[in-house]
């Protein structure tokens, strides 16, 4: 895959960096602060300082023939993804990567009901954040086709793993939606996601889209309850839909009422991926570690 450049060096970016380093691949990452640069250097990752909201600050290193992983979140507000546009504008014609892997979201499908959607389902983003993600997908797809860069889009289910469990929510006793009204949703363990990212860069065909999730969807209420039981925290009370609508923040409420079940067969068939954590009961115990 050549040189690796990661845009958005959070949890998933650092996991991808570690896996790439295990393959003896050089890794660099875009960060926006000196502190972030120091943290990357401590991990053996070459830092590149720049801010996606400030185009003049973007001075990108040599990316020619390498792989870019774009993990940075979109800006808040609106329906356009300007950060992606700013990054692409900063790429000089002679400094293009061979491939770019973009982390999108299952939200671009909208509410899937009780049907497991595959990659042939047309996008129908309902929320502003999903519309920004789909705008980024379309922008990158056109750019990749124009410049001969292999673009692979990963539509990600809800992520869980070390450091990503709803511990504070449970400790504070915030209520959950009644289980019978909480919709099923797919999830993926962060370590499986990092492995799939590398497989996508290595084996994904130009323009390919992949659903990324495990084998066993469950409701947000069932997920929170399983985490509480694992940690020995008392399960919060369950409240009916209208009460939850009043008490929960809109983003949290959406996780309980939006159904996003995805079919993951394509990552198995096309990328040869074998999940380490195919079910929540496999991945939750492994989520208690620090890394």
TrEMBL record:
The entry lists its GO molecular-function terms as:
aldehyde dehydrogenase (NAD+) activity
Q: Which organism is it from?
A: Geoalkalibacter ferrihydriticus DSM 17813
**PANTHER family per UniProt:** NAD(P)-BINDING DOMAIN-CONTAINING PROTEIN-RELATED (PTHR48079:SF6), PROTEIN YEEZ (PTHR48079)
What Pfam families does the record point to?
Epimerase
One GO cellular component term of this record is: cytoplasm
Q: What is this protein called?
A: NAD-dependent dehydratase
Write out the transmembrane intervals. Answer: none
First and last residue of the signal peptide: none
Entries under SUPFAM superfamilies matching the protein: NAD(P)-binding Rossmann-fold domains
């Amino acid at each position: 895959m050549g040189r690796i450049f990661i845009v958005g060096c959070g949890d998933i970016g650092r996991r991808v960096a570690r896996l790439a380093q295990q393959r003896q691949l050089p890794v660099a990452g875009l960060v926006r602060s000196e502190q972030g640069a120091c943290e990357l250097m401590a991990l053996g990752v070459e830092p590149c300082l720049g801010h996606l909201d400030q185009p003049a600050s973007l001075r990108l290193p040599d990316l020619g023939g390498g792989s870019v992983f774009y993990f940075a979140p979109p800006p808040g507000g609106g329906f356009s993804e300007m950060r992606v546009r700013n990054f692409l504008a900063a790429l000089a014609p002679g400094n293009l990567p061979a491939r770019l892997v973009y982390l999108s979201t299952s939200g671009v499908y909208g509410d899937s009901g009780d049907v497991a959607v595959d990659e042939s389902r047309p996008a129908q983003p309902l929320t502003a954040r999903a519309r920004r993600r789909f705008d980024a997908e379309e922008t990158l797809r056109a750019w990749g086709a124009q410049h001969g860069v292999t673009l692979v889009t990963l539509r990600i289910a809800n992520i869980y793993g070390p450091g990503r469990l709803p511990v504070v929510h449970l400790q504070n006793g915030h209520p959950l939606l009644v289980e019978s009204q909480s919709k099923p949703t797919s999830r993926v363990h962060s370590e499986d996601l990092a492995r799939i990212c590398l497989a996508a860069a290595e084996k994904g065909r130009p323009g390919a889209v992949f659903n990324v999730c495990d084998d066993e969807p469950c409701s947000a209420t069932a997920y929170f309850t399983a985490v509480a039981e694992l940690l020995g925290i008392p399960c919060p009370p369950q409240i009916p839909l209208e009460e939850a609508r009043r008490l929960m923040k809109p983003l949290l409420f959406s996780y309980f009422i939006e159904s996003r079940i995805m079919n993951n067969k394509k990552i198995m068939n096309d990328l040869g991926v074998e999940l380490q954590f195919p079910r929540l009961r496999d991945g939750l115990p492994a989520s208690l570690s620090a890394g």
